[in-house]
Write a structure and sequence with these properties.
Layout: E1 2-7, H1 11-22, E2 27-33, H2 36-46, E3 50-54, H3 62-72, E4 77-82, H4 85-96, E5 101-105, H5 118-128, E6 156-162, H6 166-173, E7 183-189, H7 193-206, E8 210-213, E9 224-227, E10 233-236, E11 242-245, H8 257-268, E12 272-276, H9 285-293, E13 297-301, H10 310-317, E14 323-325, H11 330-338
Parallel strand pairs: 1-2, 1-3, 3-4, 4-5, 6-7, 6-12, 7-9, 8-9, 12-13, 13-14
Antiparallel strand pairs: 10-11
């Protein structure tokens, strides 16, 4: 039985979430809390397996509560966020600060349609309870010296795929890459559509590289990072421009890492570098294999730092991965591959 602490400042939401989660045979809400201070007391008392944590709360908000929990009582946390700009920004920062994942309330802070996210929330709670807590601790990679790239041939591309745990992983490795990177970077992160732009904005604020949510016809430029919009496949055309499509999901996801990487392999050939990070499932294994087949380089995150080892493991199992390294070693391996 997975024991859950539900934290939300709305009494209605606490009751509704509790009733909804208790309908599953393997889930049990053992306690609730109406604010961050009470949440800390309840974590200490009940030691739950997983916590669902509201982002927007008066007093100590969800982000600060999360940081206290991860520091004092490390516990898997799934954030519950409203579809607002402020809520999205706090949610993205919470993923960098140790939250496993998040779900978004359909109708704002007090959602009458919260039942719509039941399947997603239950699934993410079941994933959260299995993760390795130490892999949520953020380490910094060593800084790359700009001089190392001065003579590298330009016009290459780095294709990165990630899912669960990806926001933390990306916020670890992208700031370590220098702004004179002689390659463009394209990222597929499985995340809700309304959160892609705030995620890109957050990364842009902490990185030397220019980072933005990709738009139709954007050009892939050296030293720039394009992040695929949520809910839309991203491909790169022979003219090295972004093509966005609403083709059917692959492996149940859209955007798909495979779709992005396959198009990059066809356009860039041996100048492609594929990187697969933490995530559930097998998205990216086909794309990584295709990059290897055309002479590109491939890198996968090692199990020892993955929040979820599914996607890297699937790629490694194909035999197409050149390097399997810890998260903090990936920037260095990207530079080696570019050289």
């Amino acid at each position: 039985m997975i024991r859950i602490l539900v934290v939300d400042d709305s009494a209605f939401m606490r009751q509704f979430l509790s009733d909804m989660l208790n309908e599953s045979d393997d889930l049990q809400v053992t306690a609730t809390a109406k604010n961050g201070y009470e949440a800390l007391d309840k974590v200490r008392e009940y030691r739950p397996d997983v916590i669902t944590l509201d982002v927007a709360m008066p007093g100590m908000d969800g982000l600060h509560t999360l940081k206290r929990i991860m520091n004092d009582f490390p516990t898997p946390v799934v954030m519950v966020s409203a579809y607002t700009q402020k809520g999205a920004e706090a949610t993205i920062e919470s993923l960098e600060s140790g939250a496993v994942d998040f779900v978004a309330k359909p109708d704002g802070p007090v959602s009458l349609n919260i039942h719509k996210i039941k399947e997603e929330l239950v699934s993410k709670i079941r994933i959260a309870v299995k993760i390795e807590l130490e892999h949520l601790i953020k380490e910094k990679p060593k800084e790359i010296k700009k001089a190392l790239l001065s003579k590298v041939k330009r016009g290459k591309i780095v294709a990165i795929g990630s899912s669960t745990g990806g926001p933390k992983a990306l916020s670890t490795i992208l700031p370590a890459l220098p702004k004179n990177l002689p390659a463009g970077v394209v990222v597929v992160q499985h995340i809700s559509a309304d959160f892609t732009a705030p995620f890109a904005s957050r990364l842009n604020s902490i990185c030397g590289l220019e980072i933005k949510e990709a738009s139709e016809d954007d050009t892939v430029n050296d030293g720039e990072v394009l992040i695929a919009p949520g809910g839309i496949h991203l491909k790169i055309s022979p003219q090295r421009k972004v093509v966005l499509t609403e083709d059917p999901p692959r492996h149940g996801v859209r955007p798909s890492v495979d779709t992005m990487m396959e198009s990059i392999a066809e356009v860039y050939g041996e100048n492609s570098i594929g990187v697969i990070l933490t995530g559930m499932g097998k998205d990216g294994s086909v794309g990584m294999k295709r990059i290897k087949e055309v002479g590109g380089k491939t890198i996968a995150e090692d199990r020892s730092t993955c929040v979820v080892f599914g996607m890297p493991n699937a790629a490694i199992s194909t035999g197409c991965v050149d390097k399997v390294v810890k998260l903090t070693e990936i920037p260095k391996e990207v530079i080696k591959a570019l050289k």
